[in-house]
Amino acid sequence: MKTLVCEMCGGNNLLKQEGVYVCQNCKTQYSVEDAKKMMIEGTVDVSGSTVKVDNSAKLDNLYKVARRARDDGNTAQAYKHYEQIQMEDPDNWEPAFFVSLYSAIDILKNDSPGDSVRVSGGRVSLGGNYRSGIGSAIRTVYNCLDGVFDLIEEIQDYDEQQNAVDEVTAYTNSFKNSLRDIIENENRRMASEISEYSSQVEGGTVQVMSMSSQNKKTANEYYSALSNIIDLAESRIKRVEEVVGKRRIDEYWDAHQDEKNALESERESLNSQIDKFSDDITVIPGYNEMVENQQRIEQEKSSEMSSVARPKTGLFLTGIIAGIIIAIISWATFWGYAGPSFLNITLFILSVVLTFTCLITLIKKTKMYKTHRTNVNSEHEQKLQALLEKYSRVTSEVDAINNKIAPLRNRIDAIDTELTRPR
What we know:
Elements: E1 2-4, E2 14-17, E3 20-23, E4 29-30, H1 32-38, E5 39-41, E6 44-45, E7 52-53, H2 56-71, H3 75-88, H4 93-109, E8 115-120, E9 123-129, H5 133-153, H6 158-197, H7 204-255, H8 257-282, H9 287-307, H10 313-334, H11 342-390, H12 392-420
């Protein structure tokens, strides 16, 4: 059974009068064609105190006309239909995205150009107003993306979910490219406007330069905001991929529980074997003594390394630069109008001494620091080598046990990979 339902008030008491359908509740009129689109296919649930209407047929029709308008480039009609769909289907990503997108496009369509220059009564002044709708349009799209992708994440059908991601990506990139063109055109228009009236602007060249600089700054801010839209979309797409990947893995192992249990049981057994082998290492005669000696050698190395401080390069460079600057000033004064004097000659000599002193000190300290580190590292390697030779029997036994542990760890890695690999 098909029932007419008024889009304005929700009433179903519509009568045909003089070739149109009129809602008897709110008096809204519909053409025959509109009435056909409003027909609801389905059953009416009258149980309880609430009447529920199955509006799936109406929604299907609304989606069809909205998508047709979208594909035809009729943004005004697409916006109108998607806005209506959003009220009926608020948990769907499609109306949430396209209502915001077409709202942003409408902002741009109704936006007025900026006014770099104002001409009034023979006077020319700088306006200072960049096209205001650009920023508002960018914010409108940016602010909707998180909510849109939240809804996309909830889609269970993977093909439908991928189509949603592809559509948002395509339309977002198209919006970005269109906005870049608008910004570039606005830049050219305002630059041309400023150039045309530059000789007449109150405040002269300084004001003209200030306005040109401000326009460039605003444009760069808009370019950056557009990049933020793409960055946000890309980060959310990556998150969708992660959510989908985890969901696919969980679904696979829910359907292969026996296989999963077997792998996890095997992994647990392997870890127990590794723990036993590790315990065997700790009871090798001389092992604990060898480890203590190794730790002592490492501590000695650390202490020796810190005994000679790294030269403060920045401090010495500051002294070198200061010396050069003073030398240049003193030299300029020496050959300037004032002529040589005891003071500027003395300053020049002292600045040269300061420069070379800082430079030579920096070179010496750097060389000493590097030599010290090399010596400490060499001594450390010699001590370790001697230690290993002393405990060669212990290291042989440790290596033998580690050789048994290695394939067990490799198998555990293989199990972890199998449990987490994409499905």
